[in-house]
Amino acid sequence: MLTNNQRKLLAQLETKKGREKTGLCLVEGPKMIETAGKAVQEVLHINDMGARSFSKIATTDTPQEVIGIAKIPEWTLEDVKRSKTVVFLDRVQDPGNVGAIMRLCLGFDASMILVESADPSSTKVIRASAGGLFLVPWIDLDPSRARDTLKELDRPIYRLEKRPGAKSESVLATDQSIVLIIGNEGSGISITRDGTSVVIDHEAKLESLNVATATAIALHVRYR
Description:
Elements: H1 4-12, H2 16-22, E1 24-28, H3 30-36, E2 40-45, H4 46-49, H5 51-57, E3 66-71, H6 77-81, E4 85-90, H7 95-107, E5 110-115, H8 123-128, E6 138-141, H9 146-153, E7 157-160, E8 167-168, E9 178-182, E10 196-199, H10 211-223
Parallel strand pairs: 4-5, 4-9, 5-6, 7-9, 7-10, 8-10
Antiparallel strand pairs: 1-3, 2-3
Helix pairs in contact: 7-10
């Protein structure tokens, strides 16, 4: 059975404030726990908690039988800058999209900066990222620092957006280090007007691509 301290900690880690305060997060299932590796500090089994308590914490319809308590990685801007492609999320709100893009960064050797986006330490993002939270260099940036950070990165900026005059995704096939800005699902990019607009070419009968799908195509162009 769980101790009172364990129950309190689990309750804390269900909230963003609690995760920020403790520097810890929850990871679900043996595969994710394995991916998190040395970051995992404790593993709890369904037998320790009881099925009812366990299902309250789990975010899937068919919960795994183990949950890990892991230390949230502490990356720096210098870590992020080592990647030739920095994906800059500007208010991307859906945890599934943020997790999917983090997973893409893992697959296409990119790093990530988040501004006012879904919390990367939430279980939904971690699950969608396939554990990318522990492997992809990323920082969660205060909006007041966003423009200065873009200047500090000191590399060409590309804005993934559908607008008149936007270039084809082929312009991303460059050896230069770049920043690729991905905007909010509904309102697009607001953090800066600088940079080159890039659109993913597709049939006109399709109004737009899902943000994660568009990012996948852009990163593939960068990688190949």
